[in-house]
Amino acid sequence: MTELCSVVLAAGVGRRLRPLTGMVAKALCPVGNVALLDLALGRLAGLGLAGPAQVAVNAWYLADQVASAVGRRAHLSVESGPAPLGTAGALGALRDWIDGRGVLVGNADAYLAGGDLRALLAGWDGRGTRLLGTPGPPEEFGRYRFAGYSLLPWHRVRGLDAVPAELVRTMWRREEADGELTVVPYGGTYLDTGTPVDYLAANLHAAGPDGCLVAPDALVTGGARHAVIGAGAVVEGRVERCVVWPGGYVGPDEYLTGAIRYGSSGTVTAPAPDEGAPE
Question: Is the pTM of this model over 0.85?
Answer without folding.
Answer: yes
